[in-house]
Amino acid sequence: xxxxxxxxxxxxxxxxxxxxxxxxxxxxxxxxxxxxxxxxxxxxxxxxxxxxxxxxxxxxxxxxxxxxxxxxxxxxxxxxxxxxxxxxxxxxxxxxxxxxxxxxxxxxxxxxxxxxxxxxxxxxxxxxxxxxxxxxxxxxxxxxxxxxxxxxxxxxxxxxxxxxxxxxxxxxxxxxxxxxxxxxxxxxxxxxxxxxxxxxxxxxxxxxxxxxxxxxxxxxxxxxxxxxxxxxxxxxxxxxxxxxxxxxxxxxxxxxxxxxxxxxxxxxxxxxxxxxxxxxxxxxxxxxxxxxxxxxxxxxxxxxxxxxxxxxxxxxxxxxxxxxxxxxxxxxxxxxxxxxxxxxxxxxxxxxxxxxxxxxxxxxxxxxxxxxxxx
Length: 375
Description:
Elements: E1 26-34, E2 40-51, E3 61-65, E4 92-93, E5 98-99, E6 104-108, H1 139-153, E7 160-164, H2 166-177, E8 184-188, H3 196-210, H4 230-244, H5 247-254, E9 258-260, E10 263-266, H6 267-280, H7 285-296, H8 307-311, E11 317-323, H9 331-340, E12 345-349, H10 357-360, H11 362-373
Parallel strand pairs: 3-6, 3-7, 4-5, 7-8, 8-11, 11-12
Antiparallel strand pairs: 1-2, 2-6, 9-10
């Protein structure tokens, strides 16, 4: 299988690498991180970006959590070190919903990610890529590292923690693991626990990557251009992206139109090929597998007496936000959060764009963010 709109070979990994332009990234070095599994991960680095200024009382900090293939670059233009513009640029900045004239906004790249934070594509202390040696991690491990980052920044309590999809999983875990440190919470298009249906959609994505001839057991990072598992990662992205958008949108936008007279693909196939081609140039296949598995394992009720009992621990003022056309994390899963988190409110984004609406429907999300932050 080829990537039709590619004119050159993709890299073995699209991860940010030491020596690449840092862009707006800053780094925090928590050192050795002890994981839920009992394993220890040495030499951890965390890439993060900030906007605005932390006030004297350190009470104006907001943590924004990115989704699976997101990173710390939530606002700003593309440029050296940042292949894509900020994924929530319409919400973060002076005068915007997350007003950086008033707030100190923090976004870190998740543990296990590939855009500056330690993950499989990073160099281990022995100078070799972590690759297949990188341990399995959980959403709670990811949040534990973010807790250490908050301590490093001197933030005892977040004015708000918010995120969508995988980012919503971490936001929710923050409010359960550290309830006294989260004043307000927004979870967008994210559940209390991943369902069998969601795990089923993730499974062929993982197998597409593991079945790539260039996967090499996860130790491909030193391979040359075109010799990484970009075919498998591209297939995974095609599957995932189809779940991120609604059937209504795809049918209305593409129908059964062919791509062109000399192109045998349907237009919708070309669209998915385009997104696959983009991802293999800015993401790492092993991170994709690792983070997808952590999402599959997401269950706030694990070891806490079940979901309802766990959600009762949340003390933050909460808005749980569903999307009416979301077929990946349907609204009924988000309503469950509002039903069991004390005094939480359920809100719903109306959009034809499916799961990705939390990234697209800026005006609707902005109104909810302003409501969340209102005293």
